[in-house]
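Thread: "does anyone have the structure for this chain?"

Original post by V.I.:
We have the sequence but no experimental structure in hand. Need at least a predicted one for the grant figures.
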Amino acid sequence: MKKEYIIAGNWKMYKTVKESLDFVEALEEKVSALPRNEAVEILVFPPFTSLYALAGKSHKIKTGAQNLHFEEKGAFTGEISPLMLAGLVDYVLIGHSERRQIFHETDAEINKKIKTALNHGFQPVLCIGETLDEREAGKTLSTIQTQLDQDLDGLSAEEIKKLVIAYEPVWAIGTGKNATPQQAQEAHAFIREILKKKIAFPGAAEDTRILYGGSVKPDNSYDLLSRPDVNGALIGGASLKIADFFVIIQDAYKLADG
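Reply from O.Q.:
Generated one for you, tokens below.
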């Protein structure tokens, strides 16, 4: 079975509307020069202010929202409703470690957001991963198990099958440190085994795309992407620079062709 990849850029709180448009236009030009390859999907998560401007601008690059609220409307100052995202995005990032750590999102809230995203036709990209203390205490796998059990609680096998999972060890995000390819593979293989138990359909867990995130850069992307259970990358800092992001995209193209 041919492995499918997603190369995703999380722009966080960077890029104005103009900068977002210029970036996507320039990246589309570079990607258009590559051979057609349906096995590689390119995705960016711009700030909310750029989503409307980017809608329909690129045939090669999909867009996602960095977050959403689990209610459709109400007195939630500063939040974004799924109704506001309709027609603008394909994917929604849910449970990113910065949302968990800085904004104190709970697994119960993340679970509600996943259900809301699915109900409105978005594909959730669920982020999970352990802190440095948890890794040093040997709790990496138990943390992953707990997060998946709580975040996916009440979802049917058919719904779980629609998710993309992003394994992002918290200690590797924005620190310059990254999990070794072996550490990433161990975590991804464990995630896939959990999914096999939660999804009854034969082969469905094997088809689930599990991305690695955490200081992915051009000098380590090929080794990470080449691991059997790594289906792509969720990239922070390197996705803000076209040259760096494009190198990682090229790595995925090379591996998909292999």
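V.I.: this helps a lot. The radius of gyration is 17 Å.
O.Q.: and The chain is about 40% helix and 15% strand.
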